[in-house]
Structure formats: C-alpha cells, structure tokens
Amino acid sequence: MAPHTTSAHSATLTSPPPTLSAQDALVLRLAAAARALLDGPAAEEAAQSHSTTELRQLCLIVTALWCRVLRYDPATPDWPDRDRFVVPSQAMLPLLRAMLHLSTPEPDTTTPLDFGLHRAVEIAPGPAGQGIAAAAGMALAEEILAARHGRSLVNHRTWVLARDSDLLTGIALEAAQLAGRFGLNRLAVLVCPAPRTDPADFSDSLARFSASGWSVRRVNARNLPAIMTALAATLRARKPTLLACLSDGPSPHPPMPAEEEQTGPWSPTARRGASARRSWLRRLTRHRARTQFEREQAGLAPPLLSEDWPRLWRHDLRGSSSQHVALAGLRTLQTLRPELAVLAATSGTSGAVYDIPDPHWPCGLQEHGMAGMLSGMALHGGVLACGVAGMITIDRMRPALRMTALMRRRVLYLLTNDGLALSDGGGGWQPVEQLASLRAMPHLAVFRPANAQETFACWQAALLWPEGPALLVLCPHDMPDPTRPEADRAEAARPGPPPP
C-alpha cells in the first residue's frame, strides 16, 4: 500500500483518506481519540514529567499496536498467554490509561493504575532502564515455557514503551546484550527521542543496541503505512527489535470515532483478544501437560517435594562447605522442579565457573542486567527464577533486587564466595558491609548458613518465603559440621537476636 501524502491543510480533514483501508481508518480515528484523552485529565500529569511531546509522538504507533497486533483481552487482562505491554515509566502511564479506556467495554476509573492493584499493569515504575531489563526477562521466560510446553500454550510477545533515557543506562545495555545473545526475538522496544535530546546521542544509543544483536528500525511516527510495515517486520524478526519512532511531517487529525467504535465489544482489540483467549482455553483443556502448566502458573510446588527433597539431597549434607552443599541442592531442585530457570554470573579475579548443570543461562559479568531479567522472569510467571553470582557483586545487582523486593516477586539468589579470608583478589573483594545493608531491605529474606545442615534448612526456608526474593549467602571454605538431631535442623533458619 502506498503511503498517503498529506498537504498543509491535512489537519482540517473531515474524513479518512480514501486510499486507506477501513481498518487503517479506524486506527487513525482511535489515535485521534487517544490524543483527545491525553489532552484531558492526563495532560497535567504528563506535563509534570515533561513527556507530553513523547506521548503524542508515540500515540499513533501504540494505537496501531493495540488495534492490529497486541493479544490483550480486556475481560481477563492477566491471562497467561497475553502479550506483555510493559510501561516502566510513570511518565508513559497516561498513554496506557488511554489504551485501556479505548479497548475496555466498561473502563474502570476507580482502580488506580498501580502495580498490584490494576491487572493490566505489568510492572511497577522504577529507575531508568529497569523496565527494559525486566522485559528481557519476560521474553526469556516465554522462550523457556514455549520450549517446555510448546507454542500451542505459550505463544506471546513482550512490548516495552520506553523513554530515550532508558537506553543510556548500564542495566539496559547489559540486558540488551543478554537478549541479543539469547536470541529473544519476541522482545520489542518502542522509543522516541525527547524534545531536548541531542540527535547524535540518540543515534549513539541506537548504534549500541544494534551492536548488541538487535534489529533497529527507524519509523515515521506519523505515517500509518510505515508504522504497519515496521510492526509486520517486528513480527517476522529473528532478533529483538528496537523501533525508534521519529517525527516527520504533520500529523493527520481525522474526526473522532463513534462511541461504539472506541470502547465496548466492538473494539478491535477486545474482539481479537477475546477470540485468542477462547482458542487458548480450548487448547489448554486438551493439552496433556495441563495440570503441570497450571501448577507452575500458580507458583505451587510439586505435591511430593517435601519428601523427595531430603531423600535426594541427604548424601551431600556432610563434610563440605555451605557453597558446595547449596549448589548440590540447586542440582537436586532442578530434577524436582523443572520450572526452575537459572541465570549464572561469573565474576571475580579467578573467573571461576560454578558447577551448574544445564539448562542454565550464563550471563558473564553482567550481574546488573541479569538481576533485572530475574525480576522480569518472576513477573512473567510460570518459572522459578534463580540467580547465581558472587557476594561482592550484590552492589551491582542492588537496584534490580530492590525493585524485585518492592514488587514482592519470588526470586532465589545464591551468593557465593562469602567469608573474611583475604582472597587473591585483595581486600576489595571482601564483602564487609553488604550483609547489613541487605538485611535492611524490605521484603528480602537473607540467610547465611554456617554448615551443611543449616544450608539445608535455609534452602527450605528460602523456597517457602512468600514475601519476595530470598538470598543464600554462601562460604566456599569447609566448615565443621556438628552432629545435630533432625528435629533441631529447623532452628538453623530462624532469625538471630537483634543487634544491640
């Protein structure tokens, strides 16, 4: 379809251009309705964050995405095989609110658009870059579940509505490199430069993502045919995609659509999403792994885990370090809970590689990006996310870990190489104050076992911790393992006395 060219008087059009199809005309009219919503109560909120221009520039492509591509059912916005639409910045929430209003039969104006309260909100707003890393984790979780259960049950995408400042952060660049390395081709980021952004800086950000293995496309944010071509290319891409939405030419302003076209059962997003969910439910009913899939989505443990866990792990509970025993427990857990997904970071001067059986995903020295991805995997659901890294690197993981704790998502961390002995890396690799700072973080469980029996008890407590992430701080040196009765093992996971 040839792109439509507009004249200087395009803002006074009274009907959609005749060269556009009926579906494209509806997208244009809904985009006009979304802009009208942005000019309403959300205008003041957007102006306070200096994002009014960005919201308007992204309005047409986001409307096209919701009307023509996104798998979203307003009646059940949190069904497992929906597309994830990640809005990690408070400044971009007015555009999400407009999309929900246009696609929902009876828009809910009473529930705040906050994480944990509104079912359509995938992530809590946080520091720049955290949303891109979490979205990469969601895309990785989708790949893992699709490999286990097949595309008949897991066949969705992750879309991120980002700001240009997100692209500059270290966590976003680390996560981008990991996403490119893992081939997460179902991940797409939509971004436009802010009015005061230097075009050279924005081009440099795009170049970094391209060098990380991403497909980077520049698209005219005011040209609907060009937008539809870019979205179609994103669906066919074999790499993660970054769509840079640039302004070129005047924006068409077709008339407002009729109310029944904006919302209700006639919304194209609602019709397509409801149909996709019904088809998915029929496939789930007939799927041979339905029981296991539903258990994993609910985050429940297998029925016989409490009996199988000590039986398979008993031979590793004697005469070894807490680090050795904890990694042995990780290997045991992989056999009992196939939904366990392990990301491992190799750090330190020795560059030691942990003895972790496949499948696991090595993240090199990119601990910050790894921690952000673990948070996204927990947000996605269906997997039990676990990260293995050196204790001293917790300072790099802290921002992502804090977001995970604030959202109360379950992630397991095995932090190795703890201890006061001076290693070959020097005093800079000794974790001195990190333990106290971790214990001050809300909703975070910190366990520091001293021997094999305590490691076993702390592993069990970490798996049962319901409030958020759990850390096991592990020592590589052999420790004396006193003989203790089986009944006293539970005491190992109890908190110690408060500091004086």
* CATH H-tier superfamily of the largest domain: Thiamin diphosphate (ThDP)-binding fold, Pyr/PP domains
CATH architecture of the largest domain: 3-Layer(aba) Sandwich
Percentage of residues in helical conformation? 40-55%
Helix and strand sequence: HHHEHHEHHEHEHEHHHHHEEHEHEHEHE
End-to-end C-alpha gap: 74 Å
Task: Strand order, main sheet: write it out.
Answer: 7-6-8-9-11-10
Structural class: alpha/beta
- The fraction of residues assigned to DSSP E strands is 5-15%
Low-confidence blocks of residues: 1-18, 253-266, 348-353
Tell me, briefly, the overall form: globular
Using the coordinates above, name the CATH class of the largest domain.
Alpha Beta
Mean pLDDT: 82
The total number of structural domains is 2
**Rg from alpha-carbon coordinates:** 25 Å
**CATH topology group of the largest domain:** Rossmann fold
The quaternary structure here is: single chain
Please report the total strand number as a whole number. Answer: 11
List keywords for this structure.
Rossmann fold, alpha/beta, disordered N terminus, single chain
Note down, in words, how this protein is organized.
The chain is α/β, with parallel strands linked by helices and 500 residues long. The chain folds into two domains: 13-282, Thiamin diphosphate (ThDP)-binding fold, Pyr/PP domains (Rossmann fold), CATH 3.40.50.970; 299-493, Thiamin diphosphate (ThDP)-binding fold, Pyr/PP domains (Rossmann fold, 3-Layer(aba) Sandwich). Helix content is 43%, strand content 10%. It contains 18 helices and eleven strands. The protein has a six-stranded parallel sheet with strand order 7-6-8-9-11-10, sandwiched between helices. It has a five-stranded parallel sheet with strand order 1-2-3-5-4, sandwiched between helices. Helix 1 runs antiparallel to helix 3 and helix 13 packs across helix 14 (322-336). The longest helix is centred in the N-terminal third of the chain and has 20 residues, at 130-149. The relative contact order is 0.11.
